[in-house]
Amino acid sequence: MIAPGRIPRPPFYRALPGRMSQTSIERLREYLAQLPPQSQALLMREFERALERGQDTAVATLVLEQLRKIVRKSEAEEAPAPRTDDLSRLLFQALEPFLVEAGAPIRVGQIRRSSLQPIWQWLGRDGAPDKLNEFEVALARMPADSAGQVEALAQKLQAVAADAIFTLTGPGGGDKSRALARVGPPNVIEDLYSAGAVLGVREAIATLNEKLPRFLRAFGEPQIASVTSALNIPALQTPQMLPFALSIVVQRMTAPWQIIRLAIKIAASDDEIRVAATPYGVAVTIALHDLSCVAAILRADIKRGHFETVADNLKALHDGVRGLRTELDLRNDSAWGKQLTSIRADISNALQSEIDSVPGRVRRILRQRPEKDIPPGARVDSTEVEETAALIDFVATCRNYASELAINEVTLRTYSDLQQYVERSTEQLVQSLRAADHKVRTYRQQQVQAAIRFCQVLFGDDYASLMSRAAENAATGERSKSSRAS
To answer: Most buried among 265, 326, 375, 481, using CB within 10 Å?
Structure first.
């Protein structure tokens, strides 16, 4: 499942829509078309949220346009047969909002997607084999225009599965350990309990989905009151089901960490002990877990050199950490306090390590080596230049969130050092063009272009244009002097 508040990035995200060729758009459409329908729907919802927030509007508009074309085409093609031959998909469609992909850490209110297959196999083998066979036959006999019948069949199937799971996991019946072991390993058994609970209250979840606003942009008092009212469904107020209900709310929030405001409202206090004493204290657990997931994504992106979503993730982490620190009275030695401290430390360590590496990369590119040390045919790697420019921009972005993420000192120092070094080096490199030997002039010019690229990030387009004209004048003057000498 896509992390809350995060916009998924197609492979062609780096290409600006205004510059994308027809071939690139076709490749993007092919990529989107091969996604499962659930993923397409999730992408549409996330990019619609991006438009509502005013973020990535160009990218969101382009991707949404292609997605809607694909969905309209699919609906047109499937109009004669609005049904599915996949009985398991009919069963598990009620679990889709709570599924987490393989390898992702799981929290309360979530189910591993990898557990669905063993649960389905158990249902067909031990849980309700006769009923499943009956439903398969009924589905095969349904006429083409049977969307309503398929939906009714799905509801019956989900009810049968919920009953079968409750029979195995509910009280009574003696020792069930061997029967549970036939379902799968402990993590699958854990998800079996959750799946049965969700399937058992599918109507209440549908009601909640209808009552909740489509987007929760500003989670203030009116929105809190509205959501609290929507959550007031007895079947969803149990300790097992409340985390799932809150997960649905989180998915509609622009700032998912604000789910803690529900817990604070219910407790009528920001004291963590009083908040934890209410059933809604699980909202704080959810917020902390989701923040740690965003932090893990940030670390992975930085390690891979992928900086497209770094600004969004930094903002989400900054706002979330600040929100929990200011809106909740957390104790440093409590479980929640220690978890938040750990998240801040992980973020700080990951960012500081990368920030510390940037000046060295800049110096390797711009260092003005003696001409005798420059080998014939030496070149400046343009890919490395762009990667370094992205890192400089990364340092600049970190400045906006430095204080809350405990990287204030290193970020300000590094950014100031970069500005001074790049400004000084650019001027020196431009001057070197006037007297550069023709054997190394190409290399010097590439260094100057790299310096101008870094100036663009650090000082803006106007300063970069000024230095670019100075470089052109230096090169032109040197060529004129050489022509007169000859």
So the answer is: 265
- Within 10 Å of residue 298's Cβ, how many Cβ atoms? 21
Give, in degrees to the nearest 5, the angle at Cα 393 between 389 and 397. 170
pLDDT 10s digits, 91-126: 999 999 999 987 788 999 999 999 999 999 999 999
Question: Which of 185, 164, 183 is closest to 118 using CA atoms?
Answer: 183
Least confident of 200-209, 304-313, 376-385, 406-415: 304-313
Counting every residue written for the chain, the total comes to 486
**Residues 218, 325: one domain?**
yes
Contacts of 443 (CB under 8 A, 6+ apart): 374, 378, 379, 380
Residues 235 and 280 in one domain: yes
Question: What pLDDT score was predicted for residue 208?
Answer: 96
Which pLDDT band, with edges at 50, 70 and 90, does 4 fall under?
A: very low
Rounded Cα–Cα distance for residues 164 and 158 (Å): 10
The domain of 383 spans: 355-485
Please give the Cα distance from 230 to 213 (Å, whole number): 10
pLDDT score of 436: 72
Q: Tell me which DSSP letter residue 327 carries.
A: H
Q: Which amino acid is at 272?
A: E
Number of domains in the chain: 4
Residue 431 CA, distance from chain mean position: 45
Estimate the crossing angle of helix 408-435 against helix 441-459, to 10 degrees.
140
Report in angstroms the alpha-carbon separations of 279 from 119, 231, 250, 262.
29, 13, 16, 11
| Residue 216 DSSP SS3 | strand
Q: Examine the domain organization and report whether 149 and 227 are in the same domain.
A: no
pLDDT (0 to 100) of residue 36: 78
Alpha helix segments (H runs only) across 18-146? 22-33, 37-53, 57-78, 87-92, 116-122, 129-141
Q: Dig out the tokens for 130 from the structure.
A: 């006769």
Q: Tell me: do 95 and 68 sit in the same domain.
A: no
Q: Say how far apart CA 272 and CA 284 lie, in whole Å.
A: 9
Q: Do residues 53 and 315 make contact, with C-beta atoms less than 8 angstroms apart?
A: no
Q: Which of 268, 308, 272 is nearest to 287 (CA)?
A: 272
Q: Which two tokens stand for residue 92?
A: 């598990």
Do residues 118 and 184 touch, judged by C-beta distance below 8 A? Answer: yes
Single residue among 200, 235, 254 that ends a domain in this structure? 200
Least confident range from 54-58, 82-86, 318-322: namely: 82-86
How many CB atoms within 10 Å of residue 389?
Answer: 19
Kindly state whether residue 209 falls inside one of the protein's structural domains. no
Q: Which residues pair with 112 in a beta bridge?
A: 100
3-state helix, strand, coil in the chain (%, to 5): 75, 0, 25
Pull the structure tokens for residue 140.
């095969």
342 located within any domain: no
Tell whether 5 is covered by a domain. no
Q: Is residue 243, in this structure, part of any structural domain at all? A: yes
